[in-house]
Amino acid sequence: MPRKLLLPHRAVCPPFRAPRGPHEALAMNAARSGYRVFSANSTAACTELAKRITERLGAELGKSVVYQETNGETRVEIKESVRGQDIFIIQTIPRDVNTAVMELLIMAYALKTSCARNIIGVIPYFPYSKQSKMRKRGSIVCKLLASMLAKAGLTHIITMDLHQKEIQGFFSFPVDNLRASPFLIQYIQEEIPDYRNAVIVAKSPDAAKRAQSYAERLRLGLAVIHGEAQCTEQDMDDGRHSPPMVKNATVHPGLELPLMMAKEKPPITVVGDVGGRIAIIVDDIIDDVESFVAAAEILKERGAYKIFVMATHGLLSADCAPSHRGVLHRRGGSNQHGSSRGTEAAVPQDKDCGHQPDPLRSHPANPQRGVHGLSLPQHHRRLTRVGRVKVLRVVSREIP
């Protein structure tokens, strides 16, 4: 009886089918990569940033619904499966900070309960970063927010220029604190023709370290404004200098506690020469416009003929910007101020604040590169090598 030849089983593979359209191609790309991008709110700034990121990544924006119910509660609905995927949540901070925080927490928790593998929050401006120190009988709110984010399910955060670098220690998971200084330095070199005649200015001693970093990279001089007109965080009385009094206790005369001497600031001074030069004030946040106006007036008195104000986060409180607009933009001068656009929703569109920067789209545009196998220094070198992306464009307007 002849033997039967046993042939190996040949698997039948389905024929390759090309995507039928751009939307299907984006969905297939995201599915192969194992990540999705969601927008945590429906504001114009957050939606625009999320769309720019997904376009650069070649992905499709995740389907979700975020809205406020009639009783004021926030509701989040995820409209697609995220099981086993890395999820990036884009969240900008509008005027209603607390609502934005709740949207982020609820969306992270919804993704966690939907079995997402990793949940990465992309937060250009981290809220409550100014409340990172104990003041009198207050609390360290930034630490509380870090604990809430970890409890909600976040496993990673990508942010920009934290108010204090030590805030990274509040978190129990990795935090990537990206820097905007390379792009602001690029703007100075490309858009200020005579920047070699400039001096970097810190409007308070607290900002001297950041200003020194700019000055060293640009090979420029450094100036610091110090005196009675500047109120810094270190000058605030925390109310914790002495212990409470103990009644009915015998205190040895040699053990008396020394009295704290009251602080007395010297007259306003500018440490450094700004006469006949361009003054570039750098900081991380532009919120209290009055302090920048005071610094600009002092620099004008000291002989600076051009003044620029640069910062990463332009909060620009709505009730301050219009009132001081004429001081920042004087006729005949070239005063300009600019910032990134991670908090654009904080500035109402009907308020003319005298600046129109482009979105800071390069650092957060590829968040998965720092999470999926490419270190941040490598990512930064790649961004600066390809096309020298122009990040900031400031349009100054004269006030008639």
Automatic annotation (TrEMBL):
GO terms for cellular component: cytoplasm; ribose phosphate diphosphokinase complex. One of its GO terms (biological process) is 5-phosphoribose 1-diphosphate biosynthetic process. Residues 349-361 have a biased composition (Basic and acidic residues). Residues 327-382 are annotated as: Disordered. Residues 43-153 form the Ribose-phosphate pyrophosphokinase N-terminal domain. One of its GO terms (molecular function) is ribose phosphate diphosphokinase activity. Residues 333-342 have a biased composition (Polar residues). SUPFAM superfamilies: PRTase-like. It holds the Pfam family Pribosyl_synth. Keywords: Nucleotide biosynthesis. Belongs to the ribose-phosphate pyrophosphokinase family. This is Phosphoribosyl pyrophosphate synthetase associated protein 1. It comes from Anas platyrhynchos.
